[in-house]
Amino acid sequence: MNFTGANILSVEQFHRDSIEQIFEVADRMLPYARRQKRTRVLDGAILGNLFFEPSTRTRVSFGTAFNLLGGEVRETTGMESSALAKGESLYDTARVLSSYSDVIAMRHPKSGSVAEFAQGSRVPVINGGDGANEHPTQALLDLYTIKKELAYHGHSVDGMHICMMGDLKFGRTVHSLSRLLALYDNIRFTLISPRELMMPDSVLAVIEKAGHEVTVTDQVSGSSDADIVYQTRIQQERFTSPAEADQYRGKFRLNSEIYTRHYKPNTVIMHPLPRDSRAEANELDNDLNQHPNLAIFRQADNGVLIRMALFALTLGVADQVEKYECEVNWYSDKRNV
Ligand code: NCD
Fold first, then answer.
1. Which DSSP string do the residues of 21-67 spell out, in sequence order?
2. For residue 39, what are the contacts with CB-CB under 8 A and spacing of at least 6?
3. Is the distance from CB of 308 to CB of 281 less than 8 angstroms?
4. 3-class state of residue 127 by DSSP
5. What is the torsion angle, in degrees rounded to the nearest 10, for the CA atoms of residue 62, residue 65, residue 69 and residue 72?
6. What CATH class is the domain 137-297?
7. Is the peptide bond before 274 cis (omega within 30 degrees of 0)?
8. In what helix (H) or strand (E) does residue 15 lie, and over which residues does it extend?
């Protein structure tokens, strides 16, 4: 796939080859993310980082990724503080802000909004999450993490068993990840959720059509040979009221006791974060924090590599990153783990 100038809006754009292309560039980003070296390949470039919905990790990692390539970041957060609150169309916002930037990363609460915005943009637009629809960069970093974690145990993505749990209806990360995994061979999906929060039919159709084995259930048992357990948060912001979300909070928890009882010793534990650590939710307990199979912080670290790769590719500099390398002058040993 020729990424230069492309928007990254949906995982539907990718094939296995293009995913591998992204992962190869992401691998090359590690020394820069660890501050062993610097690169100024995007010196002078500007990222418009537009987050119209709450975010910490995704927003900061897009910004950090751009800074690590030597570029500058201009940021807008929240709907209320933007002209969208005055009734401005996404098209107008896109026309204007894309004149101020070389690439735009955007998150918005409405499904399809980032694609609509991209129609008015003069520069590549990367989807940082559009409502309950898609979160392609998260899916890429999740798949990158899965690949690395499974390789550590001598396994590959093809033939693996993934168990997704929690709010599969509104969780955009599981929608995008399932669609990406559908491109691989013989995946077993166990989809555990309250009946009301099941994976949407549109996503099920994609994975079933690709010939994968899917079990939809509201029971945690039966996943004892899962390679990955991917836990999610109840997406309270997508419910009509907090009281409605309360009905489902805390229904499917993962803690040390449940993990040991239901999963095999090598099952990798993932979560896109943030985890809801309030007592009534606590879907992924702190008592697993020191567990070697807990990959959640490795996922977050990998997010920077994937976003660096996407910027390098969409701005057409992936083959020049090393050419613009320079020294790191400050103390940075603690990153070299
Ligand atoms: C996720 C999101 O925003 O969809 N967070 C993230 O980007 N890592 C998941 C969530 O908010 O629960």
1. HHHHHHHHTHHHHTTSSEE-TTTT-EEEEEESS--SHHHHHHHHHHH
2. 32, 68, 69, 70, 321, 322, 324, 325, 326
3. no
4. strand
5. 40
6. alpha beta
7. yes
8. none
Count helices and strands in the chain by DSSP H and E runs: 11, 11
Task: Identify which of 207, 265, 255, 212 has the alpha carbon closest to the alpha carbon of residue 231.
Answer: 255
Where in the chain are all domains bearing CATH 3.40.50.1370?
A: 11-134+302-326, 137-297
User: What pTM did the predictor assign?
Assistant: 0.96
Chain centroid offset of residue 241 CA: 26
Measured in Å, residue 273 CA sits from the centre of ligand 1 at: 6
What is the mean pLDDT for each group of 10 consecutive residues in the chain (337 residues)?
97 97 98 95 98 92 98 89 81 95 97 97 98 97 98 96 98 98 98 97 98 96 92 96 94 96 96 96 97 97 98 98 94 64
Q: Are 1 and 21 in contact (CB under 8 A)?
A: yes
- DSSP assigned state of 199: P
Residue of the CA atom closest to atom 12 of ligand 1: 233
Class of domain 11-134+302-326 (CATH, top level): alpha beta
208 burial (CB, 10 Å; 0-12 / 13-18 / 19+) is: middle
**Residue 166 CB neighbour total at 10 angstroms:** 29
Pocket perturbation via mutation, ligand 1, pick of 60, 106, 114, 135 by most ligand atoms within 8 A of CB: 135
For the record, the structure tokens of 336 come out as 């070299």
pLDDT value of position 335: 53
Which pairs from 184-187 meet CB under 8 Å and 24+ separation? Answer: 184/16, 184/157, 184/158, 185/158, 185/159, 186/158, 186/159, 186/211, 186/212, 186/213, 187/157, 187/158, 187/159, 187/160, 187/161, 187/162, 187/212, 187/213
Give ligand 1 pocket residues (Cβ under 6 A): 57-58, 129, 135, 138, 172-173, 233, 235, 272-273
